[in-house]
Amino acid sequence: MKIYAIGRLVLHALVLIFSIVLLGVSANLVALGNKYGLSLIWAQLALAVSVITLAVMIPVLVLDRVRRNALPSWTAAELGWNGVLWVLWLACAGYATNALQGLDCGSRSYEVLYLDYYLGKKGQAVCQQAQAIEALSWLNWIFLFALFWWLLITALVYHNASQGTVWMSSMSDYQPTGAGAAKGVDMGGEVPMAQTGYAGATPMAAGTLQQGMQQQQQPAYGYGAGMPPAAGTPATQYTQGTLATQGHVPPAGVAQV
Q1: pLDDT recorded at residue 168
Q2: Distance CA 257, CA 236 (A)
Q3: Cross-strand bridge partners of residue 222
Q4: Alpha helix locations (H) across 100-199?
Q5: Kindly report the CA angle at 14 between 11 and 20, in degrees rounded to 5?
Q6: Along the chain (257 residues), what's the average pLDDT of each consecutive run of 10 residues?
Q7: Closest to 171 measured CA to CA, from 162, 179, 180
């Protein structure tokens, strides 16, 4: 489906961009925490989920461009790894929100003044980075959650039409525009029946055509077949009537043909 292919590409691109940003920001906060003996578990979780997301999505997107209908792009497989990712981002966003609740990044706030004392006038920037981790984690969860349910609902809608093959193929390549195309079947260059002129032939018409061809192949009764027609047959009556009309009646005692 072209619409799903475009939407999937856009959402995955946004998730990748946000994951790269989160990777850098969370790594910086983890390094600062280790330097000053602070255990920032929410930042460590964001760092780990960012690495997992990049390790999963980059190979999938590369395979989509190199090989069509690759295994990670199958509907069943994509629902699996996509569902795992949105659960991880939900956990990351929820943990960061719980840890950073009430955080004030104003220039005169207690948090900023406290961080300025240890980081040397970098407290506000660090505080904003913490808020960025929280916001981008929620955005990644929303994008992946929406993509997961979009894919699942679409697959359920076309399950009967595709006879279940939609689960073992890429939704981006699925074309619900006919029986063959909806099932993802390659016609292999065969000419459809509608183009041969016999698409509208009914069984009765086909039987009549076959019977007519058989009649043409049978030898006609007459001199060409080596046997004259018997007297009283329609052919004999037709010949006698024609000769009588033209005045060529044979004499009595001569066999009439």
Answers
A1: 84
A2: 6
A3: 227
A4: 110-119, 123-157, 179-182
A5: 140
A6: 86 95 94 84 94 94 83 88 95 92 74 73 82 94 94 87 80 65 40 43 47 51 47 49 49 49
A7: 162
204 occurs within a structural domain: no
d(CA 112, CA 104): 8
For residue 129, being part of any structural domain is answered with: yes
∠ CA 160-166-170, nearest 5°, is 160
Among 64, 134, 124, 68, CA closest to 99: 134
Please indicate, yes or no, whether residues 64 and 126 belong to a single structural domain of this protein.
Answer: yes
Q: How many helices (H) and strands (E) does the chain have?
A: 8, 0
Residue 198 lies inside a defined structural domain of this protein: no
Residues 26 and 158 sit within 8 Å (Cβ to Cβ): no
CA 82 – CA 40 distance, rounded (Å): 27
Backbone φ and ψ of 117, nearest 5°: -65, -35
pTM beyond 0.70: no
In a domain, 227, yes or no: yes
My answer on whether 52 and 168 are in the same domain is: yes
Cα torsion 187, 190, 195, 196: sign: negative
Range of the domain at 22: 2-182
Report how far residue 203's alpha carbon sits from residue 212's, in angstroms, rounded to the nearest whole number.
14
pLDDT for 140:
96
Q: Tokens 């390659």 appear where?
A: 186
Distance CA 89, CA 44 (A): 13
Give the Cα separation of 248 and 222 in Å (integer): 20
